[in-house]
């Protein structure tokens, strides 16, 4: 294998670090042929000395902005080799220097903390000693507010003749009152938002349990979700399939009745699992449901939730399985993300499809080497396991799976 041949070219103690760590890493050289080629390329680059040079840190930082690992979404020999090549540089950096490479710093700290890497590194001390970072003092990125939209309209109006300007201005004012209240008319804006929200909620109220949560308590007023998408906006709950059949008009879809512990009774849910999971395995199945997506028509049947599933790293054809809530779970149990900023937050009553909140968060959903379901923050790379008060949710068989 190309990657193994490249390891032989590494200098000591990096070669020993890689050799020691690989014994504890699943699929260290890649799970697919494509991944194997990429792993080999990274190890070869480390062996040739083209990784770890101070002048290349900026480019590497850019590459790592959207990634947890160098290859796919799991730890490989490529990560261990690059970590070892970066160690002499990072062990000498001052805070101002590693603050300027946030993605690379986050990546380095994550890799050095992986159990397999740490175990191998400790056996080679002090060559790969733990590098500590003052991440709490990282300067915050200042975000500039968007320029008010009405300025563009004013500029356009001033190019008209007085008569034309008067007509256009009258039209713009009517549009603003009817659809887009100007900043500062907060009372009118809030009133329209509430009316719109009531209209959107009304059709789904009967099937979604009204305004009561899983425990039967009246829910507090929900935020509108205008801020940056965060995972705690997603309403995850434990459910149980109480009835299931194949969709009458679509052979690839199941129509399930799922009990989420709501007074209104089970929800109708449509899922595309026919080709992947036999119906017998889903009867009376406990699962985790995404309960605040906007209801959607699926070939004539309206679906009021989504079953959270894990897809094998090699794709759907390699397998899909239902994410399992912890043992002793009860229908309606709240499922949340670990972390003080998420655990006690209230989910939105309904995700606005236009804001693409779920789509923004979903790429960070994965399963760890322990098969535990988690969300990995794409910026900080902190890991937040998905759990209830009974324990952590898992995918029974998959490591590095995508959740959706």
TrEMBL record:
Residues 140-149, 209-221 have a biased composition (Basic and acidic residues). Residues 1-128 form the GST C-terminal domain. Residues 230-336 form the TRNA-binding domain. The keyword Transcription regulation does not apply. Residues 140-232 are annotated as: Disordered. Keywords: RNA-binding, tRNA-binding. InterPro entries: Arc1-like_N, Glutathione-S-Trfase_C-like, Glutathione-S-Trfase_C_sf, NA-bd_OB-fold, tRNA-bd_dom, Tyrosine-tRNA_ligase_regulator. PANTHER family: AMINOACYL TRNA SYNTHASE COMPLEX-INTERACTING MULTIFUNCTIONAL PROTEIN 1, TRNA-AMINOACYLATION COFACTOR ARC1 FAMILY MEMBER. This is Nucleic acid-binding protein.
């Amino acid at each position: 294998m190309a990657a193994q041949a490249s390891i032989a070219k590494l200098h000591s103690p990096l070669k020993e670090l890689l050799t020691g760590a690989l014994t504890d890493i699943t699929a260290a050289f890649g799970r697919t042929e494509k991944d194997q080629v990429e792993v080999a390329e990274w190890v070869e680059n480390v062996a040739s000395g083209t990784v770890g040079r101070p002048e290349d840190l900026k480019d590497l930082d850019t590459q790592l902005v959207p990634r947890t690992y160098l290859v796919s979404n799991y730890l490989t020999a490529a990560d261990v080799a690059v970590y070892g090549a970066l160690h002499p540089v990072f062990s000498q950096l001052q805070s101002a220097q590693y603050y300027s490479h946030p993605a690379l710093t986050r990546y380095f700290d994550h890799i050095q903390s992986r159990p397999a890497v740490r175990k191998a590194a400790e056996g080679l001390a002090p060559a790969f000693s733990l590098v500590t970072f003052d991440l709490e003092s990282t300067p915050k990125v200042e975000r500039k507010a968007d320029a008010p939209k009405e300025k563009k309209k004013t500029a356009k109006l001033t190019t008209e003749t007085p008569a034309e300007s008067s007509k256009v201005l009258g039209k713009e004012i009517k549009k603003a009152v009817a659809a887009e209240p100007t900043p500062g008319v907060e009372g009118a804006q809030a009133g329209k938002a509430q009316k719109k929200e009531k209209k959107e909620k009304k059709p789904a109220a009967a099937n979604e349990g009204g305004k009561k949560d899983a425990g039967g308590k009246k829910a507090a007023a929900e935020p509108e979700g205008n801020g940056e998408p965060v995972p705690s906006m997603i309403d995850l709950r434990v459910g149980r399939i109480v009835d299931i059949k194949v969709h009458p008009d679509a052979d690839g879809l199941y129509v399930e009745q799922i009990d989420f512990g709501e007074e209104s009774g089970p929800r109708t849910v449509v899922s595309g699992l026919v080709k992947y999971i036999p119906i017998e395995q889903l009867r009376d199945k406990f699962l985790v449901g995404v309960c605040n997506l906007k209801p959607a028509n699926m070939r004539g049947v309206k679906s009021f939730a989504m079953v959270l599933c894990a897809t094998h790293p090699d794709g759907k054809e390699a397998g899909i399985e239902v994410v399992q809530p912890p043992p002793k779970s009860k229908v309606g149990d709240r499922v949340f993300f670990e972390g003080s900023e998420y655990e006690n937050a209230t989910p939105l009553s309904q995700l606005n499809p236009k804001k693409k909140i779920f789509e923004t968060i979903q790429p960070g959903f994965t399963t760890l080497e322990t098969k535990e379901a988690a969300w990995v923050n794409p910026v900080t790379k902190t890991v937040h396991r998905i759990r209830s008060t009974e324990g952590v949710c898992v995918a029974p068989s998959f490591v590095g799976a995508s959740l959706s």
